[in-house]
Amino acid sequence: MTTAAHPETDLVHALADGELEQAEADRLRAHIVTCDVCTRELDDVTQLKLIEGSLRRSQGQVLQLPKRSRAIPRVAIAWAASVLVLFGLGFMRARKAEADADRALAESRAEAVKAQAALAAQLDAERKVRAGLESELTDLKKPRTDMPVLALNRTRGAAQAQTLRLAHGQRWFVLTIDREDPPAFEVYRARITAGATQVWATERLDPSSRDSLSIAFPTATVPPGEYELSIEGQGRAGWAPVARLPFKLVQEK
């Protein structure tokens, strides 16, 4: 049922907001139940209020909705619903971006902790190596008065290795080799090999006296084992072989 005498739109909004006195609200409801137009308008206004409330709760903001008018309530409802959807999508995207940022920050912190631990371990290892080298260097600087002198005999073509013996715990030794008679070279070079592996070499070896060459070794460089000492002398025509001396180094237990 419809009627031509419709109440003002403000009254319908006031009824939806609960702003009317009881008597006036009862008279307006009595009209609305008999008027299709006013019933539809009250439904639209009520739905608009519900959407407005949802927007306020989800965003924590007061939105400026269209002014009260009989001509635009359905347009206002559609507009408010669109705003609610957009705000909801924006809110979800913002939360996802925040979660992604937190996760990336946590991963970055974890990687930084791992890198810091690895660096600390590397620095600790380097400190230990440096301490060991400094200890060895200090030991090297100490005067050596207890080094045994081991003589290698220069016998060309000797097939059997000469055995040289070190006392237990001896850390250094000196090899002496007789020079050629008469001496033919003033500068020598030498190397020690174990099979095909070179364990020590020098490109300049000066005579220790007119009759001999002397070389000092730590047992860390030349530990007990079988070796060959090769010596060459520098002459006018270049380097010439002087001696190849196989030897076996043994340390007493």
Provide tags for this entry:
Immunoglobulin-like, five-stranded mixed beta sheet, 8 strands, three-stranded mixed beta sheet, alpha/beta, 253 residues, 2 domains, single chain
Topology of helices and strands:
Elements: H1 9-17, H2 22-32, H3 36-59, H4 73-141, E1 149-152, E2 162-166, E3 172-178, E4 188-194, E5 197-205, E6 212-218, E7 225-235, E8 238-251
Parallel strand pairs: 1-3, 2-8
Antiparallel strand pairs: 3-6, 4-5, 4-7, 7-8
Helix pairs in contact: 1-3, 3-4
CATH homologous superfamily label of the largest domain: Immunoglobulins
Q: Multimeric state of these chains? A: single chain
Judged by helices, strands and strand pairing, the structural class is alpha/beta
Tell me the CATH topology of the largest domain. Immunoglobulin-like
In N-to-C order, the SSE pattern is HHHHEEEEEEEE
Helix content: 40-55%
Strands ordered across the widest β-sheet? 2-8-7-4-5
Identify the overall geometry. Answer: rod-shaped
Kindly state the mean pLDDT as a whole number? 81
Low-confidence stretches: none
Distinct helical segment count:
4
In words, what does this structure look like?
There is one protein chain. This protein is of the alpha/beta class. It has two domains: 81 residues, no CATH class; 103 residues, Immunoglobulins (Immunoglobulin-like, Sandwich), CATH 2.60.40. The strands form two sheets. A five-stranded mixed beta sheet has the order 2-8-7-4-5, with no helix packed on it. The protein has a three-stranded mixed beta sheet with strand order 1-3-6, with no helix packed on it. Helix 1 crosses helix 3. It is rod-shaped.
